[in-house]
TrEMBL record:
Any one GO biological process: peroxisome fission
Domain of life: Eukaryota
Annotated PANTHER family: PEROXISOMAL BIOGENESIS FACTOR 11, PEROXISOMAL MEMBRANE PROTEIN 11A
Originating organism: Cyanoderma ruficeps
One Gene Ontology CC term in the entry: peroxisomal membrane
Entry keywords, A to Z: Membrane, Peroxisome, Peroxisome biogenesis, Transmembrane, Transmembrane helix
Protein's UniProt keywords contain Transmembrane: yes
Transmembrane segments: 248-269
Localization annotation: Peroxisome membrane
Signal is among the record's keywords: no
Identification of the protein by name: Peroxisomal biogenesis factor 11 alpha
Length: 273
């Protein structure tokens, strides 16, 4: 796809913690790109900690001798959630900038999906900032349930747009794989062609095989798909679309956070936009 990966904004290919990423800067700590990378990594670790606490508290909450530990885990989970809100205050600006950038993409589907995703995420950050103001006591009269629902809807919309973009990528690659297969048939003998046709006639099995191969050859696409699917568990539960447990939400959130940390540490695994 055409465009710049948000996970590699500064243009470097080395991991975020590598000194070579900022070797061209006189003071790497003060460079905006490096500060954003460091902030993103801190946020990812805080998110991973939050969902780890949620998962652990769910697993041990029914044990009588673990009540104090469960309480401490829930307090840490709440602290991580509040801390993330504070760190995310400036993210709405970055989301609007990203929306402006993706609006210039030449392909219509990625352009629409990514721009809508970034705009929805920007609105989510606005709602998130309002909730933070209430949590620190600056605006105690804010209707928390209403703003929380709006934030969740914006986040849910952003995830759906991301998944639509992922499916577009998968469909395009499946189409390319089918064209390659047809091209190969022209150079094979009649016997080889019959074998290929036999594989294609399996229908669902053939589709799943091609899908697995496409995702296997494109780790960034696979990781992005896994992350977006995992992130859906929270909004689906909050909005009442598909109710689940804190354990499932905690596990999915932790897995999503680990994928996020991986793509930050290795920008080449971030799906380009």
């Amino acid at each position: 796809m055409v465009g710049e990966s948000p996970g590699d904004v500064s243009g470097y290919s080395a991991p975020w913690f590598s000194p070579s990423r900022c070797k061209t800067h006189h003071d790497a700590r003060n460079h905006p790109g490096c500060r954003r990378m460091k902030s993103a990594f801190i946020l990812s670790f805080m998110r991973a900690t939050q969902y780890t606490c949620m998962l652990l508290s769910y697993l041990i909450e029914n044990k009588a001798d673990k009540k104090k530990l469960v309480m401490k885990l829930k307090q840490l989970e709440s602290s991580m959630s509040s801390g993330r809100k504070m760190f995310r205050l400036g993210n709405m600006v970055h989301a609007f900038v990203a929306a402006r950038r993706t609006a210039a993409l030449p392909e219509m589907v990625p352009c629409l999906c990514l721009t809508a995703s970034h705009l929805s995420r920007a609105l989510y950050f606005v709602c998130d900032a309002v909730l933070w103001l209430r949590s620190v006591g600056l605006q105690p009269h804010i209707d928390r349930p209403k703003w929380h629902t709006w934030a969740t809807k914006c986040y849910y919309c952003s995830l759906l747009m991301n998944l639509a973009r992922d499916w577009y990528e998968i469909s395009w690659r499946l189409e390319q794989a089918a064209l390659e297969e047809k091209t190969k048939e022209k150079f094979f003998s009649q016997k080889d062609g019959e074998e290929l046709n036999g594989v294609k006639s399996d229908g669902l099995h053939s589709f799943l095989h091609q899908l697995v191969q496409v995702l296997k050859r494109n780790p960034p696409l696979l990781l992005d798909l896994v992350k977006n699917l995992c992130d859906l568990s929270g909004p689906l539960d909050t909005l009442g679309i598909y109710k689940t447990s804190r354990g499932v939400i905690g596990f999915c959130g932790l897995l999503s956070s680990l994928v996020g940390i991986l793509t930050l540490a290795s920008p080449h695994l971030k799906l380009k936009q």
